[in-house]
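Researcher: Please translate sequence to structure tokens.
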Amino acid sequence: MQRLGWVLCVALLACGAAAAEEKPPIVVGLQADMSSGSAEAGEALRRGALIAISEINAQGGLLGGRKLQLMVRDHHGSAARAKDQFPEFADTPNLVAVLGGLHGSAIIPSLPFIHERQLLFVCAWSATTEIVDHGLKPNYVFRVSARDQLVSEFLVTQALKRGHTRLGLLLERSSWGRSNEKAMSEALAQRKLIPVGVQWFNWADEDMEAQISALARDGAQAILMVANAPEGGNIVKTMARRPLKERLPLYSHWGISGGNFPRRAGPSLAQVELSVFQTFSFVGASDARSRAFMETYHRMFGTKRAEDISAPVGTAHAYDAVWLLAQAIKKAGTVDRPKVRDALEQLGPYQGLIRAYRPAFTPTRHEALELSDYKLATFTPEGILVPSQP
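Model: Translation complete:
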């Protein structure tokens, strides 16, 4: 009889262990360009999210041992493809939120669906203002990324510091470009200035001479540029073909760092004065959190140096976003999306890679980063993006 009791006890323990192992995973979606002109951005987001997930799972997961799992979908930079993918995310059991980037134009058309289905969307690399400021309530979009309104303020300030008061705008023809035209014009207007000219280009445009020449004729001393890697590379190549004295300095939004921009620009990169907006760099980072992160990154992805971490802003944003989401799941005690949404607005302080969040969000602020987090960077002759000297 005693032996039978032991057998039953062991069986019950085995059943309990099996039940623990069968706890359903908590799914985090990732929707990004994984195969087109900004595929480097998508891969950076994936890697940052995977490192955060590996750390959380190594600590036992969430909600009593449930492990996090990443579900990746490639929108290829297409709004239509992104729109087709959101129902799959919404219908996936135990999916708590979707991380997204790089293209704001791929996200904005799906905002009504996101809110209709109460699908939490955490923007980890896209600055288009309207992604968060869309007027839908309650707001299911949170951003661990930059915001065009502040990026424009930052770039205008940096250009003026360097004595460039006559600024031309060179923008991609998209919702992101239009967002920046508005924000840059407002930033200049606050200083009683206006853009000397505004020029537009389309995705896949190769020769930008007409646009650059028009801005030069308008008297531009420098150009504020909003482009992704393919077109950004073509802008740099076009600028490098101009006579040395006619090459205008470029102040670029961060889109060019989301693809293999140095390869696309080629030798022209060393012939043009180019400054790039960023929020984070692993180069020179010496704090314990960054060092630990880099050790894990090198182990998981076979790199050796901080300079080998491509598209660092996307990597850091996704990492912090997943950890903030984990804090919200813990606080909510569930993966119910409305409750996790509410918890994201009520988080306590959290030390991330990019900054100390105190807190990341509030009921009236769904933006985790501030103007003080913004930095300027340049490319080395080897094509490595490094922080500019102050």
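Researcher: Any highlights?
Model: The domain at 149-278 is CATH 3.40.50.2300 (Rossmann fold).
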